[in-house]
Specification:
The protein is an alpha/beta fold. The chain has 13 helices and seven strands. It has three domains: 96 residues, ATPase, nucleotide binding domain (Nucleotidyltransferase, domain 5), CATH 3.30.420; 94 residues; 112 residues, no CATH class.
């Protein structure tokens, strides 16, 4: 009996759909298994390719199947969708994953380690707390504005609202003062938790030699360096720096036909959090260079010709390519020499 060369799995919480294919692409089996029986079934199978969509829990299952000696391939869901035939169900999804994984030009997602996923959770937790703080501050500003107390946006101006609560002459009723004080306690708690997570990130960044090399690049701080370690696949898997920048979505979107190239705005593909951090760091670098000047001839020339936001995105692209070069060549950043 011929054994399946590719087994695709449509992941779920409890009921998993498996699709096995032979070397010629014909169907070997279709199975539906409960969660507690999946590992036992895969352990009984000869070494083969195990394909899954890169979705929730896929990295966990990828690590588990890898321990069994199977070759794990994670396919981005956007690349699986074109292979789904007519009806949408688990069996059709599993077959589509198998078809996509068997394509010779398919691109796959690297299986993340537990350490990488732990670091990504650290980032996501901080991001959630920052959003909750912003939501609370905006709610406080909106409520106080109904009583004539107005403050600008941003955490830096929250003290104005606190002063309005303590000011006996402010137009705020007693109940509004009590509720406002309650929201201020919540904002203070969130500030402490965010600061604690940021201290943890900085300590982790100082302990790793790879993040030290990344932090030598202007525009990459501890958060950006740790984000590259947590969210990006091994940079050695990219053939060149431009491929890493394209994975981040920092290259123009193409809409070319008939041999006529047409480039638009950046594609915004890839990892959103990492792209945002690189663009934010680039904006800080551009702002400093515009005010104080820069010895970087490329940046000075761009600022002289282009708008600041465009220069910031171009600088983020350049920073991503520099980061790839540093990590693949095990070097530190060397600032460009000024032109004569």
């Amino acid at each position: 009996m011929a054994h399946a060369t590719i087994i695709s799995i449509d992941l779920a919480k409890r009921s998993f759909q498996l699709h096995g294919a032979l070397a010629d692409g014909s169907v070997a089996f279709r199975k539906k298994l409960n969660r507690d029986k999946v590992l036992g079934f895969m352990a009984s199978q000869p070494r083969c390719i195990v394909a899954m969509e890169a979705c929730g829990s896929s990295h966990h299952w990828g690590r588990e199947f890898g321990k069994l000696g199977q070759e794990v391939k994670l396919v981005p869901p956007i690349y699986v969708k074109p292979f789904v035939k007519r009806q949408k169900n688990d069996a059709a999804d599993a077959e589509a994953i198998c078809e996509a994984a068997s394509r010779p030009t398919m691109r796959f997602v690297a299986v993340k380690t537990q350490e990488q996923q732990s670091q990504s959770m650290l980032f996501r937790t901080r991001d959630l707390l920052v959003r909750q703080r912003t939501q609370t501050i905006n709610a406080l500003r909106g409520h106080f504005a109904e009583f004539g107390v107005v403050a600008p946006q941003g955490p830096a101006h929250v003290e104005r609202l606190a002063e309005a609560i303590e000011d006996a002459d402010s137009p705020l009723p007693g109940l509004v003062r009590e509720l406002g004080a309650l929201l201020f306690v919540q904002i203070g708690d969130l500030d402490e938790k965010i600061a604690e997570l940021e201290r943890d990130l900085r300590e982790r960044a100082r302990e790793d030699e790879r993040t030290e090399r990344l932090m030598s690049v202007p525009g990459i701080g501890p958060l950006g360096a740790m984000a590259i370690q947590a969210f990006a696949p091994p940079l050695e898997s990219f053939r060149r720096g431009r491929d890493f920048a394209a994975w981040l979505g920092l290259v123009p979107r193409q809409s070319s036909t008939g041999g006529k190239p047409k480039l638009g705005r950046i594609s915004k593909m890839g990892q959103r959090d990492l792209r945002r951090l690189l663009v934010t760091g680039a904006m800080a670098t551009v702002g400093w260079a515009a005010r104080r000047g820069t010895k970087d001839p490329w940046l000075a020339g761009m600022l002289a010709r282009k708008p600041r936001m465009l220069v910031a995105v171009a600088l983020a692209n350049r920073t991503a390519r520099i980061a790839w070069a540093l990590m693949t060549k095990n070097e530190y950043y060397r600032a460009p020499l000024p032109t004569a």
